Every structure is written in structure tokens, then in C-alpha cells.
Automatic annotation (TrEMBL):
Keywords: Glycosyltransferase, Transferase
EC code(s) of this entry: 2.4.1.13
SUPFAM superfamilies in UniProt: UDP-Glycosyltransferase/glycogen phosphorylase
Organism for this UniProt entry: Cannabis sativa (Hemp)
Function in brief: Sucrose-cleaving enzyme that provides UDP-glucose and fructose for various metabolic pathways.
Protein name: Sucrose synthase
Family: Belongs to the glycosyltransferase 1 family. Plant sucrose synthase subfamily.
Residues covered by the Sucrose synthase EPBD domain: 160-246
Stretches assigned to the Glycosyl transferase family domain: 569-736
Length: 819
């Protein structure tokens, strides 16, 4: 879209739209008449533009009308609630910025309206009585939290840590009373009752400043590498405890930083201090829904990237904590506990074991706590959509278990996904501990109109519980870790996953006029990586796990169908396009199969291999998986794919999987991730790490991971013809340009090494833990006010919603099987 010449910064859309409409009055009258002609309805961006096209059939005329401000407004409109003669529009000129206007289709008058009024128009389409109820429940976190600082630039979204550090440094400036916050914080640092950094005597800014001058000049006289214990006693006499550093040089640097901040706080020094302070030794990570394990679980329903992410995250965090503890001059052991549910009917996995050390760590464990109800312990797996009735009790049991195992409170609690984030919020709030959350995937954006149509979807998905729980934990947490910018605030054209929780309505339940603000400095982007000891380039021959070669060749080429593979590849010489995912509808593996089936050009060029789910629908309990299995079988039949497709059942060994990616890279093939929507997409970075050129969905995280045409390719999951042709063109180009494949492979790897590694991640997250731990102390009054509001939402709304979910007595009756 062209620039916006006539929208000045100070103008609102409601101010400037009347003139813009006037300039194209004839066409706009036609256009708005079309909008209202079908009566009440909710229009999405694509419907709006389609109607515009039809109202102005002449292409030149249309582009003239759309050239200026009007085009900008119309293309920025995400949604329009049509209630004739009015059209209420939700316009998003920039990520995070929304305006609402109401246009009368008869005379084209424009009025600016509030978010609440826009939602009421929307509700009129779904539930008129609710829309007209003056006392309908409105949730407004903006009204309770108006004192906290907010960024204003869309480009600052997701960089909360640096924003908050700047803000804190202003808060510590001026009057020495302000800097006392830092002294109090240093006073609060302890480990198992042992004081760190400073003792009780250094309890004022002046005392600490004085001691630091003496301390710093004393350590400056020592050789730089002098170990801490050689001069510990002298520092103790001055009031200093352990934690400043392991050598004289490091202690001196830390003392200098603290002195400078006490004298005149600056964000740079403050940021550095939080990378050094001994604040985090014990971390609890929640991921209740299962199966959560280290082997034989991947690919099972609900068990995918989140598990891979957490296990890699634990390894990276432990390694970084060990390094930091050493540099702090301490000899403590860090401890990370991943708490998940214990599933007695573990179906051959280790999910019925109470405790399991985490492989490749020294001090980290998985701890499993069962779901308990009045009927006793729940034995079977339950879908993540049905999990809410167990969470409150689980959080209490888990808290008791953690306190016992850690012999005290943890320093940081991290939640994962809706269930883990809610449990983390309950525990963090109870114990007064710093909390971080990770969504992995917010379900709200995955299903169209999942908020407005919640009543229809609730029996299957219980979105009323899920969206309420998400809102509770988003607001309750001290910081939010996201994998990409798009997860928070989307792109220029599409709202982010968090952003979609800002203003929404669930008619009959609640109208959310401010659910979350994406400009809050709690948002931080810290992208995960892939374990580079497992996923490394196919060219690194000496590192390859060659023992898997025969098994992989059997997996790909053995001609007999069995319960591990189905279909065969008649021409083994062709390159392979490969995909691997759980068999969820949203992963669109069946979509890829259909694109391939329909595209003769692509079929002539390459074979298709997919790893997904399994083949017998009667063995699945997951409704989406059952439908997808059936669809895969029928597509293979319909397009006569046998001879060109290999469908492999879910694979659970990541070492072997990594060799599979590399084997496909050896065939000069490609990885394709065709999801209808993907929050992040670990398979994308695994494939790129192995050197496979990658085609991935433009809907969600992969659009940010890959720079289209540079480090891989974007494909549109809603346009199979275009996407499959794009893949075919790549392979055609590889035939004519001998180095093209290698060039794309290398560019993918470069992108990974620059932006997607666990080392970068662990550093950022530990910095967040320490910094937000301090920030919550500085802003405790605001935090308390918000917590009271959240508590009310939890007890009055969430608890009631949970009661609508049935607790299975024996094996749960799956809705899909009951239908
Ligand atoms: N995975 C696997 N076997 C399968 C399917 C997936 O090992 O049959 C792994 C895959 O390698 C990746 C994770 O599961 O590590 C999937 O993560 P992703 O982020 O792509 O999707 P999610 O399942 O979390 O939605
Ligand atoms: C959940 C998803 O759906 C994926 O997109 C992510 O990669 C995964 O979690 C890890 O965060």
C-alpha cells in the first residue's frame, strides 16, 4: 500500500475518514450498500476487499480510489460488524494500534466509537440480548493498570527488558531514597538462608556507597586473578558477603557498576548488574498436560514442540546458571524442576514415574504430580482442552512437592501453555515469587471467531476456560517470553496472538475491552534454538550418526506396508520433499499431500515423505487426529499416490530424526512446513540446522524465522497451487543452476546461527528473571492492585466455568467418538 499522505500523526481515523469518503462518494456509497445488503454479518479483511473489488469493477478506477487515505483505511480494517444501516469497523493502522469507527451506509457519516461500542455491534450479530444488556460483564485491565509504564513505538514491542531497565534507572535517580530500592534488593538476596552480596550493616545508600569505595580500592590492589576466598575475610569486615565475583577483577568490576548506579543510575550499568547478581538458583517450570517425557512421547496428541523446547531450555538454563554461579564466586548447585502430571496409565511411556533426572543435565529433574479429584487419582491421559478441573488442586499439590524438594521457595517460576501458565500464576502468587510465562501457541487465533462463537465450540474445546485462564496468567505474570515478534503483535497486515486478546468478546460470558496491552514492557522475544549436538549440517560427515543409516533406508524404501510406514517410493533417485508434524488439522499435512497429489509437475520432480501420527484411526483418542488419518488414506487413494509417497508413523527418536533430515538433505531435497498456522515451528529450525532448504508457512512464526527467497521460502497454506508451484520452481532451478541448492542450504544455516540458538536464549531468560524480580519489588503497589482484580476474575468467573467440564470416571469418552 502506498504511503498515507493525508493522515497526519495527530489525526484520528474518525477525523479524516469523512473527507476521504467524500472524495470517492459514488463508489463508497456503492461499496457500503453492498456491505449492508446481506443484513447483519461479521466481515473479515478479505471479505471487505472482495466487496470493494466488486463495487469498483474498473481496475484503474479502483486503484485510484484505493491510492490515498481511503485505501489505507480499508486495507487496515481487520473486521467489520455489519448491523444495517451501520458498519462498525476495527481498524489497525499499525501493530498494536487500533481505532474503531461506525459508518452509516445511507449517508456515509462517520463516528469514532470506543472498543466497548465496537464489541457491542459485534455482539448484536451473535447474541442480541447480551449486546443490549447494560450490565454485561466488561473486563478492563487497562482501567486497573494505568500507572505502569508503556512503550509507544511498535518497534519497541517485545524488547521489554531494555525498556524496563531504562525506566528503572529513572526510578532510582534523584533523591537517594529512590536508590534505596537497590539496597533493599541486594539485602534480599539469599541462598538457603545464607546472605549474599551485603550484610545487615549496609542498609542505607550512604553506608553501601562508603563501603564500596573502600572495597573497590582494596580489591584494586590485588592481582586480577586472585581467587575470592583469598580476600573474603577483608570484604566481610566491610559488610560484603559472597556473590560479587570469583576473582579480584570481577569483584572490582561489579562493585564499580553498583557504585556508579548508586551515584547516577544509567540503563547500561543497570542491565549489566542484573547479568551478574546472584538472584536465581532454583527454577520451577510447569508443563502439566502430558505426555511429558524424554522418550517415546513425541508425536502423541498434545505432545510436540513444547516438550522438546522445555528439555532443551532446561539444559541451556542449567549450563548458563552453572557458569554464572562460578563467576559469582559461589559453589551452589542450581536446581531446575520441571513439574508435569503423573499419568498412571502411561501407555508404555515413563509418565507414571514420579521423578526422572533430565538427560544431559547435572541437577535437573522431571517431577510428576498426579491429577487428583474427589474420586481419587485420575488414571488416564486427558486432552489439553479438558484439563481445567484438575489445575487448582494440582497447583496446591505441586507447590507442596516443590517446597519439599527444594527445601524452600524457588527463585523463579516459568509456566508453559495455558495450563502451565495458570498453575504458575497460582503458585507464584501464593509464594510471592517472580513469574515468567510462555504461550507456545495461543489457541484463540487458531480457530476463526473462536471468541464470538465460543458457545458453539465450548463443548469440544472449552475455550471459555482457556481464554479466561490465558488472560489471568498474561496479566498476572511478571514477564512473558515469546519466540517471535509476530506472536505478540503480528505483522503490518495481521494481528499478533497476544494482540488478539486486547479487545474481544465472548457474548453471554464477558466483553473484554482491555485484556492485555502489547506495549507492556513485560513482553520479551527470546527465540528457542534446536539442540546443535543433535541437529547439525549434513555436510559434517564425521559427526553423522551413521549407525542409523540402514534403519533410515529401511524406513524410506522398504516396499512393504507395516505399522511404521505406508506407501513406497518407486524412483529412489528423485529428491525428497519432507514434512514432520503431529497429525493436527492445523499442521495441514493432509493439505501438503493434496497439493502434491494435484501438481503433476511437482510429482515428476520429487517424492513426498511425511512423518505424522499413525495409520489406524480406531487407535486414536484425539478427534482431530482421527479425522486427519482418514483424510490421508483417502487422498492417497484419490490421487493414486502410492509409488511417490511414503507416509511414516510418528517418530520418537530425535537422534534418528536428525539423521532423517540429513539423509533428505543428502538427496538434495527440501523440508516443507505447510501449517495453516504455526506459532513458532521447531521443525523449521531443526531442518535448517541440518542444512535442508526449507519452505514454511507464511502464517505465524516461520514467516519471521525465514527471510523469503533469502534463507528459505514462504508458502501460503491457503493457496496450494501457488505453494506447490513455488516448490516445483525451486527444484527446476536446482536442475539448471548447479549451486543453487547449496546456496539456499548455507543461507538457512547462517540465519540459524545468527538468531536461533539456545545460548542466546538462556542468557536473555536469566537476565529477565533477575531484572523483573527487582522490578516487581519496585512496583509492588500496582502489582497488588492488579492481583486483587485477577483474583476476582479467577474465583468468580474461572472457577464457575471449570464446573462445565465433566470429569471422566473411567476412560474418558472422547467427544469425537461420541458424535
Ligand atoms: N516431532 C517428532 N516426531 C514426530 C513429530 C514431531 O519428534 O512424529 C518433533 C519435532 O522434531 C519437533 C517437535 O516434535 O521437535 C514439534 O515441534 P513444532 O514446534 O514443530 O510443533 P508442535 O508440535 O509443538 O506444534
Ligand atoms: C507449540 C507450537 O505449536 C509450535 O509452533 C512451537 O514451535 C512449540 O510449541 C514450541 O514453542
Amino acid at each position: 500500500m502506498a504511503s498515507t499522505p493525508s493522515l497526519k500523526r495527530s489525526d484520528t481515523i474518525a477525523d479524516s475518514m469523512p473527507d476521504a469518503l467524500k472524495q470517492s462518494r459514488y463508489y463508497m456509497k456503492k461499496c457500503f450498500a453492498r456491505f449492508v445488503a446481506q443484513g447483519k454479518r461479521l466481515m473479515k479483511a478479505q471479505n471487505i476487499m472482495k466487496e470493494v473489488d466488486q463495487s469498483i469493477p474498473d481496475v484503474q478506477e479502483r486503484s485510484k480510489v484505493l491510492e490515498g487515505l481511503l485505501g489505507y483505511i480499508l486495507t487496515s480494517t481487520q473486521e467489520a460488524a455489519v448491523v444495517p444501516p451501520c458498519v462498525a469497523m476495527a481498524i489497525r493502522p499499525n501493530p498494536g494500534y487500533w481505532e474503531y469507527v461506525k459508518i452509516n451506509a445511507d449517508d456515509l457519516t462517520v463516528d469514532g466509537i470506543s472498543a466497548s461500542d465496537f464489541l457491542k455491534y459485534k455482539e448484536l450479530i451473535f447474541d442480541q440480548d447480551w449486546a443490549n444488556d447494560e450490565n454485561a460483564v466488561e473486563i478492563d485491565f487497562g482501567a486497573i493498570d494505568f500507572l505502569s509504564p508503556r512503550a509507544t513505538l511498535p518497534s519497541s514491542i517485545g524488547d521489554g527488558l531494555s525498556f524496563i531497565t531504562k525506566h528503572m534507572s529513572t526510578g532510582l535517580s534523584g533523591f537517594t531514597g529512590n536508590a534505596k530500592h537497590l539496597v533493599d534488593y541486594l539485602q534480599s538476596l539469599t541462598h538457603r538462608g545464607e546472605k549474599l552480596m551485603i550484610d545487615e550493616t549496609l542498609d542505607t545508600v550512604e553506608c553501601l556507597q562508603g563501603a564500596l569505595i573502600v572495597g573497590e580500592s582494596f580489591v584494586s590492589t590485588l592481582p586480577k586473578n586472585t581467587p575470592y576466598h583469598n580476600f573474603e575475610l577483608r570484604l566481610k569486615e566491610l559488610g560484603f558477603e559472597k556473590g560479587w565475583g570469583d576473582t579480584a577483577e570481577r569483584v572490582r568490576e561489579t562493585m564499580k557498576m553498583v557504585s556508579e548506579v548508586l551515584q547516577a543510575p544509567d540503563p547500561k550499568n543497570l542491565e549489566l548488574i542484573f547479568t551478574r547478581l546472584p538472584a536465581i538458583f532454583n527454577i520451577v517450570i510447569f508443563s502439566p498436560h502430558g505426555y511429558f517425557g524424554q522418550s517415546d512421547v513425541l508425536g502423541l496428541p498434545d505432545t510436540g514442540g513444547q516438550v522438546v523446547y522445555i528439555l532443551d531450555q532446561v539444559r541451556a538454563l542449567e549450563e548458563e546458571m552453572l557458569l554464572r554461579i562460578k563467576q559469582q564466586g559461589l559453589a551452589f548447585k542450581p536446581r531446575i524442576i520441571v513439574v508435569t502430571r503423573l499419568i498412571p496409565d502411561a501407555k508404555g511411556t515413563k509418565c507414571n514415574q514420579e521423578m526422572e533426572p533430565i538427560i544431559n543435565t547435572k541437577h535437573s529433574h522431571i517431577v510428576r504430580v498426579p491429577f487428583r479429584t474427589e474420586q481419587g487419582i485420575l488414571r488416564q491421559w486427558v486432552s489439553r482442552f479438558d484439563i481445567y478441573p484438575y489445575l487448582e488442586r494440582f497447583s496446591q499439590d505441586a507447590t507442596a512437592k516443590v517446597l519439599q524438594l527444594m527445601d524452600g521457595k524457588p527463585d523463579l517460576i516459568i509456566g508453559n501453555y495455558t495450563d502451565g501458565n495458570l498453575v504458575a500464576s497460582l503458585m507464584a502468587n501464593k509464594l510471592g515469587i517472580t513469574q515468567g510465562t510462555i504461550a507456545h501457541a495461543l489457541e484463540k487465533t487458531k480457530y476463526e471467531d473462536s471468541d464470538a462463537k465460543w458457545k458453539e465450540l465450548d463443548p469440544k474445546y472449552h475455550f471459555s476456560c482457556q481464554f479466561t485462564a490465558d488472560m489471568i496468567s498474561m496479566n498476572s505474570t511478571d514477564f512473558i517470553i515469546t519466540s517471535t515478534y509476530q506472536e505478540i503483535a503480528g505483522s503490518k497486515s495481521r494481528p499478533g496472538q497476544y494482540e488478539s486478546h486486547t479487545v474481544f468478546t465472548m457474548p453471554g460470558l464477558c466483553r473484554v475491552v482491555s485484556g492485555i496491552n502489547v506495549f507492556e514492557p513485560k513482553f520479551n522475544i527470546a527465540a528457542p534454538g534446536a539442540d546443535q549436538t543433535v541437529y547439525f549440517p549434513h555436510t559434517e560427515k564425521q559427526r553423522r550418526f551413521t549407525t542409523f543409516k540402514p534403519a533410515i533406508e529401511d524406513l524410506l524404501f522398504n516396499k512393504e506396508d507395516n505399522n511404521e510406514h505406508l506407501g513406497y517410493l518407486a524412483d529412489k533417485k528423485k529428491p525428497i520433499i519432507f514434512s514432520m508434524a503431529r497429525l493436527d488439522t492445523v499442521k495441514n499435512i493432509s493439505g501438503l499431500t493434496e497439493w502434491y497429489g494435484k501438481n503433476k509437475r511437482l510429482r515428476d520432480l520429487v517424492n513426498l515423505v511425511v512423518v505424522a501420527g499413525f495409520f489406524d484411526p480406531s487407535k486414536s483418542k484425539d478427534r482431530e487426529e482421527i479425522a486427519e488419518i482418514k483424510k490421508m488414506h483417502s487422498l492417497i487413494e484419490q490421487y493414486q499416490l502410492k509409488g511417490q509417497i511414503r507416509w511414516i508413523a510418528a517418530q520418537t527418536d530425535r537422534y534418528r530424526n536428525s539423521e532423517l533430515y540429513r539423509y533428505i538433505a543428502d538427496s538434495k531435497g527440501a523440508f516443507v512446513q505447510p501449517a495453516l498456522y504455526e506459532a513458532f515451528g521447531l521443525t523449521v529450525i531443526e531442518a535448517m540446522n541440518c542444512g535442508l532448504p526449507t519452505f514454511a508457512t507464511n502464517q505465524g512464526g516461520p514467516a519471521e524465522i525465514i527471510v523469503d527467497g533469502v534463507s528459505g521460502f514462504h508458502i501460503d497454506p491457503n493457496n496450494g497451487i501457488e505453494s506447490s508451484n513455488k516448490i516445483a520452481e525451486f527444484f527446476e532451478k536446482c536442475k539448471t543452476e548447479s549451486d543453487y541448492w547449496n546456496k539456499m542450504s548455507a543461507a538457512g544455516l547462517q540465519r540459524i546461527n545468527e538468531c536461533y540458538t539456545w545460548k542466546i536464549y538462556a542468557n536473555k531468560v536469566l537476565n529477565m528473571g533477575a531484572t523483573y524480580g527487582f522490578w516487581r519489588k519496585m512496583s509492588k503497589d500496582q502489582k497488588l492492585a492488579k492481583q486483587r482484580y485477577i483474583h476476582m476474575l479467577y474465583s468468580l468467573q474461572f472457577r464457575n466455568l471449570v464446573k462445565t467440564i465433566q470429569i471422566p470416571v473411567e476412560e474418558p469418552l472422547q467427544p469425537s467418538l461420541a458424535e
